[in-house]
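Project standup — Tuesday

K.O.: blocked on the structure for the chain from last sprint. Re-posting the sequence here as requested.
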Amino acid sequence: MAFFRGDFYSEHLGMQTGAHFVIPENVEKNEELRVLYLLHGLSDNCGHWVRNTSAERYAVEHRTALVIPEVQRSFYTDMKYGPHYFSYVSKELPAFAQKTFGLSAEREKNMVAGLSMGGYGAMKCALTYPEQYAYCAAFSSACDMLRRTQKASSAPYVLDERILRDIAGMFGPELELPKECNLHYLAEKSASAPEKPKLFMTCGLQDVLLDENQVMAGLLKKNGYDIHYEEWEGNHTWEFWDTSLRKAFHYFFGAKEDGVKTPLSDGK
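H.V.: unblocked you, prediction finished:
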């Protein structure tokens, strides 16, 4: 397994940015790797997935290259007052990874996944460009951006001043959510797409975002998506997300036991 931490200039961001790239070695001739764009959460950076989970080991098992970008606290948005992070992650970064590391642009080889803010970003990518990703996994996701812009009194949490400032930077001081940033709208818009991504969602039973994930999973199912949703005892923690990533790999590509690929049969 080759591990690269790189800095490069992004036209969409207008600055140097960093990313981690994990590339399986000893690839057989003409073998084309899967590619997973793995998105971090609000308080993380591009290093946290490899520091806090077994993502690298899972990638080796499933012959998958990892591309882990850095987006600060942007919610993977083309910000009104700031850089265009969504265009960077969904378009510029894949083009860079394909050119630099020879990674596949084929839809069936491409997957996007993330946790919390990154779960929102992963679904936003997959629902905006269903022709680009065959698979999407979202863990403990911030699914309801409308709730955040409205600062709804029914929310089970209080948005702190930092998040309110972040949201104002994304959408302007009026906090008016664009349709293209609303996952509920995107799910309905892409429901008629000729090819829709296969989806895997998880959330912990003690997670403050549980209701958002339940609603989103139900909406996706209602609109005809191939979605598998799981919840179990757990909270907004790396232990939960490590398990979620392992389950996602197994669900999409089959479990690995003694080097033999077997179906995931117990749903756990």
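K.O.: great, moving the ticket to review. Confidence is low (pLDDT under 50) at residues 257-268. The CA atoms of residues 73 and 166 lie 7 Å apart.
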